[in-house]
Amino acid sequence: MRFIYLVIVSFLFFGCASKPELTLNQQPIEVTNENISEYWIQKNNTFSFNLPLSRAPRKSVEGYVKLRFLIDSNGNTFNAEIIESVPDGFWDYAAVLALSKQEFVPAESNSSNIPVYYTQEIFFK
To answer: Which residues of the chain fall below pLDDT 50?
Structure first.
C-alpha cells in the first residue's frame, strides 16, 4: 500500500513539474520587433526570479543577451539560441532562465495561433 501511495504522490509531483510539449499547428514564421505584436503579446512585461548561488554573478555587471526562440501555438517558448551576449557569456544562463518565465498570449489578429521565431534582447542592470 505504501508503494502505491508513493507512486501516486511521485506522479502528481513530477507530473506538475513537467515541461509543456511543443505544439505547432503550422510551420513557424519569422517575425521582428516591428510585427511581433500582430502575432503574440508578452503577458508579463516584468518578472523576477532567483539564480542559484552557483550561477549568480559575484559583482554587478550590466549587459544584455540577444536570444532567438520559438513561440509555439500555445504561447510557450522553446529552442532558445543565444545570438549575442555582452559581456560574452556572463548573462547567458540568466537570459535563458528569464525566457522560461515569459508568457505569451495570441494577439487578436492571430486567431490561428501561428507559431513564430522571434529574436529578443534581454537587458540586465
So the answer is: 1-16
Place of cell 529552442: 79
| pTM passes above 0.85 | no
Residue 62 CA to residue 49 CA, distance in Å, equals 17
All cell numbers assigned to 32: 521582428
Domain 2-124 sits in CATH at: 3.30.2420.10
Residue 71 burial (C-beta neighbours within 10 Å; 0-12, 13-18, 19+): buried
For residue 78, list its beta bridge partners: 70
- Each residue's pLDDT tens digit, 96-124: 988 888 889 999 999 999 999 999 998 88
Neighbour count for residue 24 (Cβ, 10 Å)? 14
Cβ(43)–Cβ(30) under 8 Å?
A: no
How many whole angstroms separate alpha carbon 80 and alpha carbon 66? 10
The closest of 120, 112, 125, 99 to 25, measured between CA atoms, is: 112
Using alpha carbons, select from 120, 97, 103 the residue that is nearest to residue 41.
Answer: 103
